[in-house]
Design goal:
This protein is mainly beta. The chain folds into two domains: 151 residues, Beta Barrel (Elongation Factor Tu (Ef-tu), domain 3); 32 residues, no CATH class. It has three helices and twelve strands. It is extended, with a radius of gyration of 23 Å.
Length: 208
């Protein structure tokens, strides 16, 4: 089954029949259009490219417009490929919408996490702070980062302060609790990456 693109709306909670409160994320998905079909013979692999979110022509450059005009597609802001088996029955211009998913299905959701800027060891790696009393001058400092003359350097991969968040992450096995076909909404149990409005890629979880 093919994936789909959408935007995070926000989080809320819904109650089950037995009164349990479930934290859920609301995602507005699609509709997406198939803009290209790739095959092993022509591209070296089988994949389906979909486009999402129609924009004005001025928002795209000439190569992007030319690529979409080859298949008579409207100007679309986002393009995304999903690998498929060679014996699929997808067609150019086909619409992928929320109806392609079903309640109770498990999906993997990929997006850009919230950027937190430069963070220290306590926030970034859950380090323990130093003592706060008795004249201690080492509260949140990193402290020693290596040995002396031998080896005389800092080993690569040393956990230190640095940029936190703002990277692509995937949350797996999120259950679809409800689907609203009228508003094109997916309601999944749990949290997904990013802030409200964040672009997300939703694809079915592969069961081994």
């Amino acid at each position: 089954m093919l994936g789909i693109l959408g935007n995070k709306v926000g989080m809320t909670q819904i109650f089950t029949e037995n009164g349990d409160a479930n934290p859920v994320t609301v995602i507005k998905v699609g509709p997406c259009t198939i803009t290209q079909i790739k095959s092993i013979l022509t591209h070296g692999y089988d994949a389906i490219q979909i486009g999402y979110q129609q924009v004005q022509k001025q928002k795209l450059n000439k190569p992007e417009l030319g690529h979409l005009q080859k298949t008579q597609n409207l100007p679309l802001k986002y393009l995304k490929e999903y690998h498929v088996n060679g014996n699929h029955d997808f067609e150019l211009g086909q619409t992928i919408a929320v109806e392609n998913f079903k309640e109770g299905q498990f999906v993997d959701i990929t997006g850009k996490s919230i950027g937190k800027g430069f963070a220290g060891n306590q926030k970034r790696h859950n380090f323990t702070r130093g003592p706060m009393t008795h004249g201690s001058k080492n509260h949140r400092e990193p402290g020693s980062i290596g040995q002396g003359s031998t080896p005389g350097r800092v080993y690569p991969g040393k956990k230190m302060g640095g940029r936190l968040g703002g990277g692509q992450i995937t949350i797996s096995n999120l259950k679809i609790l409800k689907i609203d076909t009228k508003e094109n909404l997916l309601i999944v149990k749990g949290a997904v990456p990013g802030k409200p409005g964040n672009l997300l890629s939703i694809k079915p979880t592969k069961r081994v």
